[in-house]
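RETRY 2/3 - previous attempt timed out on the joint model. Re-submitting the same 637-residue input unchanged.
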Amino acid sequence: MLAVLKAENVSKVRESGIFRKTRREIFQNITLELEEGKTVGLMGDSGSGKTTVARIMAGLEKPSAGRVLFQGRDIDSLHGKEFWDYKRSVQMVFQDPEGSLNPRKSIERSINEVLGLLRVPKREWQERTLDILHTVGLSEELLCRYPGQVSGGQNQRIALARVLLLEPRVMILDEPTSALDVSVQAHVLSLLRELQKKLGLGYLLVSHQPEVMRNMAHEVFVLKNGCLVESG
Amino acid sequence: MIPLTTPAVPADSAILAALAIPAVSDIPAAPAGPEIRKKIQKTKILQLSGLSVQFETSLGRVQAADNVSFEIFENETLALVGETGCGKSVVASAIMQLLPKNAKSKGNIEFGGRNLLDLGEEEMAGVRGAEIAIIFQNPSLSLNPVVTIGDQIAEMLQVHGKAGRSQSIEKAAGVLQRLGLGERSLLKMYPFQFSGGMNQRVMIASALMLSPRIIIADEPTKGLDSATAAGTVQEMKKMKDLSGASLLLITHDPALVESIADRVAVMYCGEVLEIGPCRDVFQKPLHPYTKALLDCLPERGLHPIPGASPSMTNPPQGCKFHPRCPMRCTKCSQSPLMKRMKRTEWMTQVELVERVERTTQAEREERTTQVEWVERATQVECVERMKTVDLGTPSGERWVKCWLY
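RETRY 2/3 succeeded.
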């Protein structure tokens, strides 16, 4: 089966300094495949480049070498509708739930923003919003609140709801629970598992907790000294 | 609902007598090793009894701590565990008398023969840092960014008038060295030049400067990645051994508790629901909330607790966990009392609860008589087994606040 998203021999080099350039290789020759309905785990110490791999796969950063393929095509060569398709199918959830929402917009406006971008007719907005809140297990009374007024776990679920509205096929989860309590972490992770079963989503889960990986991932890669060490 | 609590003590001994099985107290206790003897000698250094803290806010009255009672013994680590917002940090602030102005505290915090709640600001300043030290959550934010590390640690001695500047900086260098930051040049650096883990060690060093008797660590690993967190835990252990102080560890992470604490107190919605030796609590949690919290851990299967934490302004009546509790009964709408459990007693009770848990709520209501039978059978079995199995040395009392027991 053709992987939805594939990183092929991707390397990243960071350059710093203005006059004298110093080059630092973060990682090299990384190959990862994401399929629908599967969770791929990516582990590593802090500073090992886990997040950079995730950002490259989401198209937020360009690799120094190698390429990222979406349904077999290089994402750099995608244009127009195809590019829109890629952007929509591959979504990212960030570590800091509060930071990924605009603090000056109410939750309802944050969700409506996505619906507006999707050109959903206004009369359907309310229905869609309630529907998606139900999916992530939140009550509608949260809609009028602001991100600062709800808890971390709820914010993370709102971020998830926004992403799910786009009907992605693959989600890139960058330490989705490391800022949360153990009990809230269990809530969010079991929600992610349920969504995977229901919608057949593929995940790239970045985390530093081996226990989380054991519970969530079908396949785990460990990033160490810039190389991938695979484990089952 | 099942009369789980009714046939507690009298029925217990009656059944055992009828079955000609020696009562629990007749079973010879495990030989008193040096560990036990040491524990008996332990003295209480801090005792909280009935501590309640209320906040007057625009949303209403918030009961952040409700009748919190526990004690800390000499040279032990007590962990206070619970979800965010359950009032753990409020308890720490109440002990240090660092509560905001809109807080009202009631109860007793006995330390060194005095009630800390009665002390004035000046007397309290003498206790803070010198006798009870606190390590705050975010090390990078708790340090002053424009004062060098050396001066910040040495400040403790100078403020309390124990030493001059050069002497205190010498001592600061000594303490830092013991924590693995030996280089002299580090003393002249600023907090923002340090990593999170190094800043945490600076916080630990300044807490150690005056050799306090109690160190309160408020979420010491929050915001640190797992490798740094593991390092910090090692530092904390080292710190405790170095200073001989007691440690009150406040955290939401049961995994951290398991690696470092002697005893655990589990908090929920401002109340302490269970206190006991760490090993026992983790192996056989008594309170349904403790069990649910431990089941959230990834290594125990990531089972979330149903529902959300109740609001602190309008908490549920009776047992505060009962709306989310899988074992709730009609009695739970009244407040349970804290009950001390004997080791033999909780062993039997836990097995009983585990058996009852397997049956559904409806089944349970139908089969009251059967449950009673199960109860008797379990008690007998457990006593039988205790005769053969070495239970190990008991390492402390267990208290639980639940109608099940």
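The domain at 5-102+168-231 of chain A is CATH 3.40.50.300 (Rossmann fold). Closing ticket.
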